Automatic annotation (TrEMBL):
Classification via InterPro entries: Fuc_isomerase_C, Fucose_isomerase_N/cen_sf
Protein known as: L-fucose isomerase family protein
Source superkingdom: Bacteria
GO molecular function: L-fucose isomerase activity
Every L-fucose isomerase C-terminal domain range: 346-472
Organism: Echinicola vietnamensis (strain DSM 17526 / LMG 23754 / KMM 6221)
Key words of the record: Carbohydrate metabolism, Isomerase
One Pfam family this sequence matches: Fucose_iso_C
Lineage: Bacteria, Pseudomonadati, Bacteroidota, Cytophagia, Cytophagales
GO cellular component: cytoplasm
Amino acid sequence: MLFKGKALAPVTMGVIIGNRDFFPDKLVSEARADILELLEKLHIHPFILDDQETKLGGVETFQEATKCAELFKKHRDDIMGVLVVLPNFGDERGVAETLKLANLNVPVLVQGYPDDLGKLDVARRRDAWCGKISVCNNLYQFGIPYTITTDHVVHPSAPKFTEDLQQFTAVCRIVKGLRNARIGAIGARPGGFNTVRYSEKLLQRSGISVTTIDLSEILGRTEKLDAEASEVKARLEKIHAYAAVGKTPQHALHQIAKMDVVLNQFMEENVLDATAIQCWTSVQENYGCNVCTSMSMMSENMMPSACEVDVTGTLTMYAMQLASGSPSALVDWNNNYADDPEKCVLFHCGNWAKSFLPDIEISTAPILGTTVGEENTYGALSGRTPASPLTYGRISTDDPQGKIKAYIGEGHLTDDELNTFGNRAVSKIPDLQGLMQYICKNGFEHHVVMNASHTADILQEALGNYMGWDVYRHG
């Protein structure tokens, strides 16, 4: 279900082992061994007190909290999240004070050990069930957001906790990624697309920076490139390796390759994570091809790219990519599927990542071609997305209310018959009609993002609990 795509960046995590002195010492030592073994298995690098720095490496007193906070502060640039482990009741103040003093502003997962029904005597009981409530109460009082496990108490060796921890690491990736995201807005928003307007200022408040450039600068640099230049030839080879070229003429492939060189240079120069590009209709009219192939290649290589300068669309692609470890695609909520109320057609003309298009081929954009000439639209991709899990959603800036909002949900892509062109898929979504009513009543865009995963829980936790955005979870 998760992490089926590209290699994900390694996760580093701070670990707090809560303790109360009158519980058996061995519970703390055992918990330390349990957690370190699991983190090693999951390739998570821990920052944890040495068992000689405090009693057994646990945190109870303010002095111990100070030591743990100092350790975390030394590694604040590396720590993506904090795991709180409660082998016994723990000291809720010690946990909260550590996080307050460290001031990391990262996601926090609170775990508590289960008691053994046959070991509730004074020498062996844990009381972590009760202690976890106290820790969460104190974090709430301190204004520190936190995540809780599926089961109130769970042993680190349980499969449920492994799944919880893996989902939490994805939450950490999303939060770290979004709070430092850099998006390139290439060109002006097309005049006919008021729907993709957004607020740079609201995004900046959440740590998301937008770097703009006029499309003429990109086209100007592209026109200066010689088709025989080594970097253009190298890109041309990558394009041939990426997709079947179909009937695309050589001169169009050279145009696509030159544009690809310049776009990648712009991303490298500005250290960008994602792009949103003015493709409708200036590129076709002023340069003579579509930029879809380059956008698809970038998205496939985990640098999401959205058309029509849809900045919050590509931001959504980036968030879903961080959640699943696989590419995302920007699509239109485009057509009903016959009279089935829970199915609809997803479409674009198109620039979806290769992961969605096993039959990928470079082609033209027939709809756009009716106004700019189909011969000027080579570079659009054709392909049908097969059945798969589906997470869909959209991040949007709501300027009148001064907030960032989102909706997310899950469904499936199907293999139902679909005879049309472009990038296309059929989706099946429970209560689709209710979702469409919500989208229309709340002013969301016609663009939505899809990802071949079921990761809505992760996105809801990251965007709502930690980014502080208004999130509607459908279904």
